[in-house]
Write a structure and sequence with these properties.
With 283 residues, this protein is mainly α. Helices cover 70% and strands 0% of the residues. It is built from 14 helices and no strands. Helix 3 crosses helix 14 and helix 4 packs across helix 8. It starts with 7 loop residues before the first helix and ends with a helix.
Length: 283
């Protein structure tokens, strides 16, 4: 009896399909907590406490949790604070990281590698260790309970410098040399030549940085001591008590807090996907 085995191409297709199925399963499992929070946002407290547990709410048109959330806490103010802090951090860190990345990638100067390693050494310092020194600095200059104080730790990021430096290093020097021959300044070269070529890196950095700034909890809790300076993450704690948690309001506030991050991802997804495709087809 002759046994026929699939050829190499078919085995590769089977292997890829199997990996896709595994990734889909794990992707769905990762979405389960998010799905649960979204469904819980439309449930009443008795529904949440019901046993056995029910996944679907009795009505998807029940917006009482969202109305009550804004009635009990000034979440409009919290959202404004979080957006303001995230925008300040994003603008500052992006500008500094792009300029520093360009300098380290395309400009020769003394001790360049030493300074680059010095910046990367920031990665080795846990953020929690710097909370007290930063707070003392903010107290001395009067930035406690201020937007600049809330945004201070994120005004500069070593990750951004590393990301843009590595990305710009792959851009051919001939583009820059041609622009310099035409008499363009370094700022014009950066703006008209480099930035259009690093849109995928910019999109990735904006998504990561916005999410990181938006989800900050420890530093806003320490520096924002007045309620009108609370961010969304700190405001969520208001629904948690020593003996009782308002899970329906926590879920509703959590759903609303996710929306800005989803919008940022949707708006920049095109550039991010293009960057992944380009990185996979080079060479």
């Amino acid at each position: 009896m002759i046994i026929s085995f699939p050829d190499k191409k078919k085995r590769r297709i089977y292997k890829e399909n199997f990996l896709y199925i595994i990734m889909m399963i794990f992707g769905f499992l990762m979405l389960v907590p998010l799905i649960w929070v979204v469904l819980t946002a439309f449930k009443t407290e008795p529904e949440i406490a019901k046993l056995p547990i029910t996944w679907l709410p009795e009505s998807f048109l029940n917006f009482d949790n969202f109305v009550q959330m804004f009635a009990e806490q000034p979440f409009g103010r919290y959202f404004f604070n979080s957006i303001t802090v995230a925008v300040i951090s994003l603008i500052s860190s992006t500008a500094i990281a792009v300029l520093a990345g360009y300098a380290f990638a395309k400009i020769e100067f003394k001790f360049k590698e030493f300074f680059f390693l010095l910046i990367l050494s920031v990665f080795m310092i846990p953020a929690e260790v710097m909370v007290l020194p930063k707070y003392l600095m903010m107290a001395q200059i009067g930035w406690v309970n201020s937007y600049l104080g809330l945004a201070f730790p994120d005004l500069f990021t070593a990750f951004g410098v590393y990301l843009f430096r590595q990305f710009m290093s792959g851009i051919p020097d001939t583009y820059i040399d041609a622009a310099r021959i035409d008499g363009a300044s370094e700022i014009k070269i950066l703006w008209h030549v480099i930035l259009p070529l690093i849109k995928p890196a910019l999109a990735a950095f904006i998504i990561i940085k916005f999410m990181f700034s938006w989800n900050q909890f420890l530093w806003p809790l320490v520096i924002g001591q007045k309620q009108d300076m609370f961010t969304v993450t700190v405001g969520l704690v208001a629904f948690s008590g020593q003996w009782y948690n308002q899970w329906n309001l926590i879920a509703a506030a959590t759903v609303l807090s996710i929306i800005p991050m989803l919008l940022i991802f949707v708006l920049l997804q095109k550039h991010l996907v293009q960057g992944l495709v380009m990185s996979g087809t080079k060479g």
